[in-house]
Each structure stands twice: as C-alpha cells, then as structure tokens.
Amino acid sequence: MGFGMVGLANLVGPALFGAAAAEGININSPLAPKAPHFPGTAKRVIHIFANGGPSHLDTFDPKPMLTKLHGQPLPMANLPTERKTGAAWKSPYAFKKYGQSGIEVSELFPHVAAHIDDIAVIRSMHADVPNHEPSLLLMNCGEARLPRPSMGSWITYGLGTVNQNLPGFISMCPGYPIQESQNWQSAFLPGIYQGTYINTKHEKLEQLIEHIKNNSVTQAEQRQQLDLLHQLNERHAKRRAADAQLEARIQSFELAYRMQIDATDAFDISKEPEHIRTLYGKGTQARQLLIARRLLERGVRFVQVWHGDGQPWDNHDDLEVNHRKLAGECDQPIGALLADLKQRGMLEDTLVIWGGEFGRTPTVELPTPGANAGKVNGRDHNHHGFTMWLAGGGVRGGYVHGATDEFGFKAVEKPVHVHDLHATLLQLLGFDHTKLTFRHAGRDFRLTDVHGNVVKELIV
To answer: Which residues of the chain fall below pLDDT 50?
Structure first.
C-alpha cells in the first residue's frame, strides 16, 4: 500500500526541492517547502476569525419558524447553554437569495453574498461547550484544554513555506483575542512553527513590527553580528543535544534579520494601486485583509485575521445594532478579498475560512446581573449548531452542507464537528489527517487527535 507514495515522493520530491534550491532556499531549513502526502488543491490558507461567536441565525442560516414563533416558547425544551434563555427571537435582518445557487444570505453580508457561488456554507457545525476559552482552543488547536499546536503551526510544519524571508504563519489582530497567544501556539512542535503575532491596531510599520528597522548599525554590520552570534549558539547547541528551544531561538534571529527586507514591503499597502485600496474600503478590517492578500502573494503559508480585541461578536445584548456595525466593518473587505484573489488567479489554490468559535441561540437571552445590563435583545452562546463557510482551494462552491433544526438550535443534518472540519481542511492541502503527526511524550499526536472524518461533499 505504501509503494505508490514512495513513487510519488520520488517524482514530486526532487522537483519541489530542486526548485527550492534553485531559488536559494536552504532545503535543510525547518521552513523549507515540503511535499504533502498527495497533491492538494489548496496551497495556502487565510482564516478570517469572527471572534466572539457570530449569530448564524442572522447571517447565513435563515429560520422562518423563529419569525412565526417570535416571543413564544419553543415547542421543545431550550438546550443548555452558558446562560438562561427564554422565548424564540426572530432575526431583525432580511434574507434573500443570491447567485445561481440561490443560497440565502442576510442583508448584513451583501458583498460576501455576491460570491456565494464560490462559497460552501456549512450550516451544521457543532463544538463541545458554550464557553469562549475552550471553544477558541478547540477551533484553533483541536483541543479545548491541554496545550496543543495550532492549525497554522501544523500546516506550516507539514508544508513549510515558500518565502524564507517571512514567517510561514502570521496572526493579525487589532489587540488580542481571548486566550491570546495560545490561539497561535506551536506547543510541542518546534518554535519556528508558532504564529507571528501582528498588532494591526497600529498603521505605521515600525509599530506593527517592533525593531523592523535597525537604526544603530548597517545591514552588513548586523550580518556580521548575527554570524558571530550564530557561531556561539552553534557551539552552545553541540553541548546540548536536541534542545528545541535553543534551535527555535537560533532560527528566530535569522528570520527576524530576513524580515527586515521583505516585511517592510509586504505590510506597506500604500504600494497598492488606488483602485485596489478603494475595492477593500477603509478601516482596520480592510487594511488587515489587504495585507493578508499581500502576504499570501509573497508565499506566506497561513494567515489568520481576527476581527478585533477580545470578543467583538459576543453580542449578549444589543445584537441588532452590534452585528450590523461589525458586519459593516468586514463585509466589503471580505468581498473584496474574494474578488481580488479570483482576479489574480489565486482563489483556486487559496483556502478561505470564515467563522467564529460557535454560534448563538435562537432564543433570547434573559437578563443576568452584571452580564447584560438587564436588556432582553441578544443571544447566548450556542455550540450545538452554528455556521462557517469555506471558499477557494478546491472547495465546492454554491453549496450548502447540512442543517440545524427548524429553529437553528442544533445541528441535525450531516453534522460537522470541529475535528471533521480540520480533517477536511488538511485533505484540501494534501494531507491524510491521520498521518500528519509529531511524536511527543511517547506517542504520535495530530491536529485531530483521535477524531475527525473528511467531509467529502465539501470538496470538488
């Protein structure tokens, strides 16, 4: 059964590494490009994270029964969530059909909806618990409690990266999400695969990336300093066999030096034509997503874009106002990203992911002292059923997968757990999720742990 893969490695490997060597890439570098298990349809990933938990019922999963029963108890017991909820609460937004596929999308996302024929909407996602911290870690790392490498770290570990002058995995957020750097941790994988955090609340390059410019010495002098430091570190490393932390530190110095050239260019969106900047619009989300496209274009393997500080989509009250504001900040930029990738021929091998850590309840949240100021106009967390969407990279466009019940409380048709999502994403990138492993503490670990099934219907 393994002879086919041996043959494929002999065919793909020399071509891949020969090309890398021709471009001056050190094939012994931990970030050097690597061949996947089999040819994948996706080569790079952008994960747009709506942190806080957007309401699927108000974005991509319309439920007419909520309108019919608005203000009345559901004809079933409310499922357990983080806080108490009451009667059915209809969506304050209108839905309409888009594209040749006729998929219904909320008025909140008209720019995204314009690309619905390139999007696979998963309406049957489910997670484990209705709390932010474990759900964020489950979505990002495949494990809700224990330290595990993040999805971006696994993918960079598996594929390496094309541009050796930039990190393979970059995570951008204006501030910090809940759980902060744990969301892009490398855990027991070598530290070179950890996500590089960029605080996009800043606009100036020197603030975005600290010490990106060396104002003390020339580049040649700095290279001499690093060469000396490298020699000292190598001597130190020889006395300490297989010290992963030391190796990660050595690699980080070299990467930081190389970044001083390429990052200066990649993060400067003023170099984009005016019509492209107009396409994305103004604001932090527009800037983040335009930078993300520039990074992907330059060979960065995995880019994660968070909406904002903390958990902006966590609307326990004033949902109508807050969701409209948040969607208004990101709808045009996301639509522009999809259009921009497509016009550059990049969408076909770029996997775009959108969603949060869970969804929200179809029932209104009841007032909780100190939590939602006595208001009754929001939704609680809902891990039983929610929506995410995928686009590009071999994804089946114009397709709706699965369904929640008629009220939107629980995934009931073709349910997709987070582990299943991860298995499918790895499949698109050319990996058997059961075989992309790393030996640690006496056993082989993987992103999906001992779970996960590829959702074949999502793949063209």
So the answer is: 1-15, 17, 22
